[in-house]
Amino acid sequence: MIRVLLADDQSLVRAGFKALLDAQPDIEVTGEAADGEEALRGVRETRPDVVLMDIRMPVLDGLAAARRITGDPDLEGVKVVMLTTFELDEYVFEAIRSGASGFLVKDTEPEELLRAVRAVVEGDALLSPGVTRRLIAEFAARSKEPAAAASLTRLTEREREVMALVGIGLSNEEIARRLVVSPLTAKTHVSRTMVKLGARDRAQLVVLAYESGLVRPGWLG
C-alpha cells in the first residue's frame, strides 16, 4: 500500500482528495493536516510514502514544512509533492530546489493525481502536464550561476548525456527515442546517475543539471 498524508488548510479539498485516494486498492490516506506544523507531526507519527502539501497554509507554510521533511535524515523515504492554485507559483522553484519531488495544480484531473502519487513513489519527478518545460526554463532563468561541476566526473559520458536530457524535461520514453535505446535502458541510466550524484529523485537531478552548468536556459531542444 502507498501511504499518503494530506496537508491543506481547506477541509473540502482534503475531503475530495481523501475520497479519491482511499477508493484505490493500492493507496490509503494515513493522516490529514490543516497547517505545516500539523503536517510535520503527522509525517513523523505515520511515516507516509507521499505528502501532498499545499504551499500556502497557516502557522507554518508548506514550503517551510517541505524543507524540514526533506532535510530530516530520519524521513529520507518521504516524498513531498507541492499543491498550488497556479501553474507557475513563485514558490515552486524553491520547493523543488529544497527537495520536493514536484508539484501539481489543484484542478489536476483525478487520473493525473493518482498517477502522480504512484510516480513519485517510484522516484520520478512530478510536474503537471503541459508546464514541465516552461517550469524548467523559468527555474533555470532564476537559478544561480553554475557551480563547480566536479561531481559530474563520477558519471560516464552516456550518463552525462542522459542527465542533460533529463534537465531539458524529457521523459524516459523520450530519452530512449533520442538515444535509440529501450525505455528500460534509459531508466537504468537515469537511476544510476541519481545514485552517483546522491539525488533524491528526478526533480533534484534537474536542479543539479542546471546548477552544474551541464544544461543552460534555452536548451529545450
Automatic annotation (TrEMBL):
Keywords: DNA-binding, Phosphoprotein, Transcription, Transcription regulation. The keyword Phosphoprotein applies. SUPFAM superfamilies: C-terminal effector domain of the bipartite response regulators, CheY-like. Residues 148-213 form the HTH luxR-type domain. InterPro entries: CheY-like_superfamily, NreC/VraR/RcsB-like_REC, Sig_transdc_resp-reg_C-effctor, Sig_transdc_resp-reg_receiver, Tscrpt_reg_LuxR_C, WalR-like. Residues 3-121 form the Response regulatory domain. It holds the Pfam family GerE. The modification 4-aspartylphosphate is found at residue 54. Transmembrane segments: none annotated. This is Response regulator transcription factor. It comes from Streptomyces lannensis.
